[in-house]
């Protein structure tokens, strides 16, 4: 009997370890964001850049593709690496922001998971902003309009016109020539000729303002 106890103990310990490993793996899978599926990357895809399958659905809900390859580059250099790989491998690359739209500009309802289409998610890492002389503000494409407006306010700046805040990326707004309306602040006098609505990309510099916040160029 004494010779069997260690054997049973070791077997029990191995069983517990296997159970813990399986539980940890299951827990890790459960923590993936909804709609994200881990899979082997496309052949030859650059190592070190996160890539996974992800459900694509636009804001209006009119376009939904069950599982599209989506990568999450951290720098502009990684985007160049991805695009060069796609060119050589025969894939199409499409930028992906917050999907706040209804037009089939990124993908269409007919796009299938098997199609060689790779989305580039800019909203996780490509969000840097900085103030430059002018004053002007340089913004990466994945920054949200909410974050941009908060950044401008914190630096005593603002824009004359803005589209809807919230889940819009700066790159997406510029890509579709998004616009907004001008509403004067309390006590503010708009400069003569200031339009009440104009394109966010029609000019890189806003007209002078007598309000508290200076207008900033956005490039």
From TrEMBL:
Keywords: Oxidoreductase. Residues 194-210 have a biased composition (Low complexity). Residues 62-219 form the FAD-binding PCMH-type domain. GO terms for molecular function: FAD binding; oxidoreductase activity, acting on the CH-OH group of donors, oxygen as acceptor. Residues 190-219 are annotated as: Disordered. This is FAD-binding PCMH-type domain-containing protein. It comes from Phytohabitans flavus. The lineage of its organism: Bacteria, Bacillati, Actinomycetota, Actinomycetes, Micromonosporales.
